[in-house]
């Protein structure tokens, strides 16, 4: 993971300084479309999350032309019986990397995302902080590269 690509989105104007100011855009999908996507996911044997991640990665590819797409996501990290009744936020970050090279169909990419996501879930007990210590990069560099869309 030392060679994580940074997703370089085209901007509406050049950014000379880094800003953490942002905005929120809300989109409500028609309930019929939402149901169709849920049905598709169920039929394909994947979760709705995996279907939406696949669509998001295709969107990022269309905007950037990059075939190696990396995103970060949070996971609740409450899969141990000992912490189920504890109060607090036990979150961990997962890095989801997908190769979009070749000419894969949506279902092909969905399978790739499914495999990546399941592998990440299987290794979710490894804290992100422990993982980056074994990397040649700093934690902030990895977080920025894996979770930031430029």
- CATH topology call: Chloramphenicol Acetyltransferase
- Helix percentage: 40-55%
Total beta strands: 2
* Count of alpha/pi helices: 5
Q: State the major sheet.
A: 2 strands, antiparallel
Q: How many structural domains can be distinguished in the coordinates?
A: 1
Shape: globular
CATH architecture: 2-Layer Sandwich
Class from helix and strand fractions: alpha+beta
CA gyration radius, whole angstroms:
17 Å
Distance between the termini: 19 Å
User: What value does the average pLDDT take?
Assistant: 80
Q: What proportion of the residues form beta strands (DSSP E)?
A: 5-15%
What's the level 1 CATH class?
A: Alpha Beta
Question: What would CATH call the homologous superfamily?
Answer: Nonribosomal peptide synthetase, condensation domain
Q: What spatial order of strands do you see in the largest sheet? A: 1-2
> Unreliable stretches, pLDDT < 50, 5 or more residues?
142-146
Structure description:
With 150 residues, the protein is of the alpha+beta class. It has a single domain (32-147), classed as Chloramphenicol Acetyltransferase (2-Layer Sandwich). Helices cover 42% and strands 11% of the residues. The chain is built from five helices and two strands; from the N terminus they run ααββααα. It has helices spanning 31-44, 48-64, 106-122, 128-133, 139-147, and strands at residues 68-75, 92-99. Helix 2 (48-64) crosses helix 3 (106-122). It is globular. Residues 142-146 have low confidence and may be disordered.
